[in-house]
Amino acid sequence: MVIKTSRIPRPGETILGGEFHMAAGGKGANQAVAAARAGGDVIFVARVGNDIFGEKAIEGFIHDGIDVRYVFKEPRAASGIALIIVGADGENSIAVASGANANLSTEDIRRAEKEISSAKILLMQLETPLETVRKAAEIAAANKVPVILNPAPARALNARLLRCISILTPNETETEILTNIKIKKTSDMARAAQYLLDKGVQAVLITLGSKGVFAASKTEKAGQIIPAFKVKAVDTTAAGDVFNGALAAALAEGKPLLDAARFANAAAALSVTKLGAQPSAPFRKDIEKLLKSKRSLS
User: Fold this and answer.
1) 58 vs 82, which has greater pLDDT?
2) Catalytic residues
3) CB count, 10 Å around CB of 238?
4) How many folded domains does the chain comprise?
5) Is a pLDDT exceeding 80 seen at residue 296?
6) Are 123 and 245 in contact (CB under 8 A)?
7) 118 part of a folded domain
8) Which one of 81, 158, 169, 180 has the largest count of C-beta atoms within 10 Å of its C-beta?
């Protein structure tokens, strides 16, 4: 549920004149929709409440061609919701009530084990229990399925989980939380990426918003910045989710990491030109159009 205001209010302050609208969201859901619209064949494993929000969510997934066999209805909790305030500059402030997301279990993962084991890519984030994320990562890694983990909301990740991760995609703030390294310049990004690579991750993509993404891997340890695309930001909500979904779709097609990251940059850039989470996820034809225009910062 989104309110667009002139600016984000300070603590204790009320701002009048906001514009309200409601749209489908949730990090995992946003990523699934973004991957599907970018051309991916998506199976989504999740929990929603047995309520109107859950019903609408499932309807939306089906509309986008997502396989919802493993979207389970949770009788004990409401669907997860986010309350979002968006300022005129496109920046946002978000409060999340996890609801059914918090009840996604390792048993749910076992039900989808066959699909996870045979997938081309497993994409996850941290709005579900860490034990559940780790179980899915271990199944994928054991079957040589590449794992993308978007560590958001950021929390401590143990070595056992990190060794299962092919690509870690934190933003600057999340990188600082994971590594205790302040990100102020490119050399800081390189040090932080190396720290994570040393923990067992195969590649690190640090998303930098309008500056693009810093990419480093076991084979390209020095790293490099892949520039963003020039657009006018309206709402940055879900830009990171769209990046991850498009990245997964591109890698599943066999694109090299840097090409996939550029594809994902284009998708994320398009997403910030529209208000809302899932409504902002672009379709394949629009991503390819922007890529052909070459309107990057390079």
Assistant:
1) 58
2) 241
3) 32
4) 1
5) no
6) yes
7) yes
8) 169
**What is the domain range of residue 282?**
26-79+101-293
pLDDT (tens digit per residue) in 250-270: 999 999 999 999 999 999 999
Is the pLDDT at 276 greater than 90, yes or no?
Answer: no
- Report which residue type is found at 131: E
Asked whether the beta carbons of 57 and 24 are under 8 A apart, the reply is yes
Q: Answer whether residue 86 is part of any domain.
A: no
Closest CA to 209 of 181, 243, 185: 243
Nearest to 21 by CA among 86, 92, 100: 86
Count, residues in the chain: 298
Q: Is the pLDDT of residue 294 over 80?
A: no
Residue 4 lies in a domain: no
User: For residue 197, what is the domain's CATH number?
Assistant: 3.40.1190.20
Q: Do the domain assignments include residue 12?
A: no
> What is the widest separation between alpha-carbon atoms in the chain?
54
Rg (CA), the chain: 18
Mean model confidence pLDDT for the chain: 94
